[in-house]
């Protein structure tokens, strides 16, 4: 409900004030017969004065009804129907100009979602017009004109309702498109965060562990310290390459996924690299034939995240990695025999710890699978299951 009249209401009010008003003044100076003039003579009133007074009053009220229809569609519709009938029957303003206020109000009411009141206004005009023709002994032509005008107003109402329905449909479609865009944007942000975590978490954890090893062995075993520094160099270089690839994809300078799809053939190298992080991983891969590329990539990233968590929370633990096909689908199981959770003796995990499992669960859910993660009697277990299309 607008606080001020709309542009259509203002233009309609100006037209309703100018056109019927000019015709009413002309009728006051004309000598043509009309029912209002005859009724004025019977009442002993000068026809010219009667026509002018009724015509101007109806014109002003019609304009006010148009201005009020935006805020009060029910009252505006009823007033417009009454003054239209008065201008038609008592002043004999021709119907197209006489019904101008009611036609504008019908459109405004339909736009405001008050089509029922617009229809009621048309019915009131029809009923009042037929009654006035009977009471004032109007001609048959006046009756036909009243009925035809009512049909025309009904057609205006139908068109206005149809246009409002199209506008509402377009608005809903626009809102749905905007909501889909917001959802897509949020999903893209989640995907970027997940991919960035996958790229950096494992690399930074490995770098942190190897840096600690290098510091610890720098004086006593410089050769092993040098190996640790070489591992840091290679790991950081790979991480930088992955980040550059992600930025290239985001900028449109490179094609493909944010992070290249991984194959299960990469698991042995991943496990071998994790051994330098202070844990003892063992891989059992019985998954043949290979599943889809999406499932393989998800398994590699889950194993990488699980190894990173084990190195962070259970240093020195033995980690068993089993990849196989079960009746319920492809299963990857990563179980360590360490603490499974941080103990007071361990250092506090860095900010953001714990998001890895959430990311793993989201990644598995995207492929229709399930993930279970929790402590065991001695350590921690992660089990992910992916259904395969039959």
Automatic annotation (TrEMBL):
Keywords recorded for this protein, A-Z: ATP-binding, Coiled coil, Kinase, Membrane, Nucleotide-binding, Phosphoprotein, Transferase, Transmembrane, Transmembrane helix, Two-component regulatory system
Quote the EC number.
2.7.13.3
Q: Where is coiled-coil annotated?
A: 163-190
Q: What chemistry does it catalyse, as a reaction equation?
A: ATP + protein L-histidine = ADP + protein N-phospho-L-histidine
Q: What class of enzyme is it?
A: transferase
Query: SUPFAM superfamilies, per this entry?
Result: ATPase domain of HSP90 chaperone/DNA topoisomerase II/histidine kinase
Domain spans labelled Histidine kinase: 299-390
Which SMART domains does the UniProt record give? HATPase_c
Pfam families in alphabetical order: HATPase_c, HisKA_3
Q: Which domain of life is it from?
A: Bacteria
Q: Which residues cross the membrane?
A: 48-68, 75-95, 115-136, 143-162
PANTHER family (UniProt xref) = NITRATE/NITRITE SENSOR PROTEIN NARX-RELATED, NITRATE_NITRITE SENSOR PROTEIN NARQ
Q: What is this protein called?
A: histidine kinase
